[in-house]
């Protein structure tokens, strides 16, 4: 991996695929079909894209039960413990509606309630993604969302991956639609005879899913459109290069666009880590992907001091940040921009990806400057409450009309005046 | 105003102007110019669009001081009291970072911190919008945002409206840029020699501002792109038709696309309100706008029962909801979708637009189903914290590798294994 002395700007920003005109036209066409023809279009498109001729768009109770036979006890136990941890962490994020009551009789407040319904997109293909299901479904459940609709593309035989079904069953997801791509997003956004319309769509997907989410945004809410994944390791000379190399490679194996970066003031560590990466990468099943990622988007940034290294991290604003220094808590207060911060040598990123409790849906591509991990707030909404008393109204009426007239909005002022006219004439 | 018996679907959704290709091309061109040429482009474009040849892009301290001579004491007093109320309400929304420490040495938490910098766009033109400044700046200040940059288009003489300057001065805004349109958004998103780059851009604007915000989204965060304004009044036979008419008209005067709707089970009230609107609208300075809005987007929905009326309100999911019933608090629990809820006859919408404290930047066009009023959370972001102990790590390692391998991510598993190898060989 290249070692670069940090002198000026560093950035993780990569040009993300935003689709071409052909893809956009295809998505628009699919959205229109599902909107107009509902289930019929959904079945037709699933046959076309996934090769599955479905009679029933929904997963049955029997399919859910049968899936348990296909999943190892060891995996089931791990899934259950992970779900417990994730639920516990997200339960600490819940908030209550609140109000202030004033002596003049006024009441002001915020009503905070869950969204009515949420759709969770789960990618299909050969790999299964139980962790995606947990990280998207559990925060919605903790928020109190009553209707959760999951959707995932079936294989050619019309089946979903057993681990996906078991994870959904463990979480209590009842409605699972066998559909993927833009057609699944369309079904969630518009509703069909079988698929309930939702208020928000979350979950990762390919470019067609991303384009479809963008297209229906406004009609429904969506989560962020994730870019390629990234990790930055901030380390001093005490850190172990073989750990750092393993952690960087765990990011690099995701895809060729993934970015794995070490920032350190230690030249020795920089060189040892570079060697370790060369050694470890050769043994990986996803070696080709990891090598491409390391070559194109990997880097070791060498700084003069730890302060400079921290400044570089804040400029990078990584999705994942590991701090591998003698006392990692010392640096925590100085980190301003990172999606998730992993402290110390026993907190490699996979601990958070799967298990510890915090969400693995994180801001990518430098957006940690202004975005947050997926969390319970994302599945709630607020309404302001304003209950003015007669006393407060008459006290403030002149101020309100002064401001309305300053802005040239006379009818605003009159909706106040009409209520004070009686008083004026007294 | 037309009286419609509610039988089926009701909706507030209007087709919002999303710009045409010429406008998009113009915005793209402006963004590129400002990105490449900075201040020089900003001055050139301000001369071109606003007719102002500026030497200095920033408002000076002297201009701020002079503006006070142009603002009435009555207005100043109203501004100050409104700012106090808005600040007090938003201060109740602040949140602390939190953590959980477990007996095994693990620490998990959420670090919640303000954004570094925020840009606030303030529309120009003949009217001045002090309330826009307060509603956008104060939540950012309360969140703890250190750098707030305001921008607003100057008049032909290069001046900003005195009320705008005084409001900014009262709030302590130091950096005010004389620029509007897409060029102002570009300056905030990319930074120029004079204008600091920000992390988030908020505030309303015309179609060019909206297109520019959409274009820079991802590079920076943006607030929602506001649609036309709307109010729904939910009333029973006890409500006063002249109040309702005045309140509906205060919304209708905003613009021709604004929507003002009464939902009631009382036919008498429906008819009396319709007459009152006819009477009151004639006396308004912005009569033409209000009449067009009432004709195209106004409606009185008549229901059989109050329950049906509430169901209709939840379908409409209005930006503003006034509840004018005998005991408005009785209905509050049943309202699921509304940006701001105004209870009782002394809480007409302008009380909230200007003064009470809650934010007037609200979800429009039915998006209250899933969006919230602008609030302090919008100016903060979260980072997850994961600090696993050696004990916890070894306890959970097998679970984590089981899940990683289930998803086919071998390098993830190895970043765990490399840390347990020593233990295994013990």
TrEMBL record, chains A, B:
Keywords: Amino-acid biosynthesis, Coiled coil, Histidine biosynthesis, Metal-binding, NAD, Oxidoreductase, Zinc
Pathway in which this enzyme or protein is active: Amino-acid biosynthesis; L-histidine biosynthesis; L-histidine from 5-phospho-alpha-D-ribose 1-diphosphate: step 9/9
One GO molecular-function entry: histidinol dehydrogenase activity
Binding positions (Zn(2+)): 251, 254, 353, 412
Catalytic reactions on record: L-histidinol + 2 NAD(+) + H2O = L-histidine + 2 NADH + 3 H(+)
Source organism of this protein record: Thalassorhabdus alkalitolerans
Task of the protein: Catalyzes the sequential NAD-dependent oxidations of L-histidinol to L-histidinaldehyde and then to L-histidine.
Residue sites binding substrate per the record: 229, 251, 254, 320, 353, 407, 412
Binding sites annotated in the UniProt record for NAD(+): 121, 183, 206
UniProt name for this protein: Histidinol dehydrogenase
Cofactor note: Binds 1 zinc ion per subunit.
């Amino acid at each position: 991996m290249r070692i670069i002395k940090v002198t000026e700007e560093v950035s993780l920003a990569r040009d993300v695929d935003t689709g071409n005109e052909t893809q956009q036209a295809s998505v628009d066409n699919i959205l229109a079909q599902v909107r107009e023809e509902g289930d019929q279009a959904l079945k037709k498109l699933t046959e076309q894209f996934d090769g599955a001729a479905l009679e029933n768009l929904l997963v049955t109770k029997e399919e859910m039960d049968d899936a348990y036979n296909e999943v190892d006890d060891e995996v089931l136990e791990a899934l259950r413990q992970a779900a417990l941890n994730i639920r516990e962490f997200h339960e600490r994020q819940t908030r209550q509606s609140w109000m202030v009551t004033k002596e003049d009789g006024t009441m002001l407040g915020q009503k905070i309630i869950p969204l009515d319904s949420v759709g969770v997109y789960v990618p299909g293909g050969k790999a299964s993604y139980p962790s995606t299901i947990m990280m998207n479904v559990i925060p919605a459940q903790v928020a109190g969302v009553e209707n959760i609709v999951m959707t995932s593309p079936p294989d050619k035989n019309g089946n979903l991956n057993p681990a996906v079904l078991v994870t959904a069953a463990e979480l209590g997801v009842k409605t699972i639609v066998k559909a993927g791509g833009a057609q699944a997003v369309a079904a969630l956004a518009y509703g069909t005879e079988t698929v309930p319309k939702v208020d928000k769509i979350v979950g990762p997907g390919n470019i067609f899913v991303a384009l479809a989410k963008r297209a229906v945004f406004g009609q429904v809410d969506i989560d962020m459109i994730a870019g390629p994944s990234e990790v930055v390791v901030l380390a001093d000379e005490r850190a172990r290069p073989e750990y750092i190399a393993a952690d960087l490679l765990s990011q690099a194996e995701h895809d060729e666009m993934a970015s794995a970066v070490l920032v350190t003031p230690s030249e020795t560590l920089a060189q040892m880590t570079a060697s370790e990466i060369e050694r470890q990468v050769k043994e990986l099943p996803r070696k080709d992907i990891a090598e491409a990622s390391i070559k194109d988007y990997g880097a070791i940034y060498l700084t003069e001091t730890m302060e400079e290294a921290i400044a570089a991290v804040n400029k990078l604003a990584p999705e994942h940040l590991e701090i591998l220094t003698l006392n990692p808590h010392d640096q925590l207060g100085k980190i301003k921009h990172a999606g998730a911060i992993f402290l110390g040598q026993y907190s490699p990123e996979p601990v958070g990806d799967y298990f510890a409790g915090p969400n693995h849906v994180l801001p990518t591509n430098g957006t940690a400057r202004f975005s947050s991990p997926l969390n319970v707030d994302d599945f709630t909404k607020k309404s302001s409450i304003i209950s003015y008393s007669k006393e407060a109204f008459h006290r403030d009426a002149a101020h309100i009309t002064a401001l309305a007239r300053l802005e040239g909005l006379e009818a605003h002022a009159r909706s106040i005046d009409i209520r004070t006219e009686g008083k004026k004439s007294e």
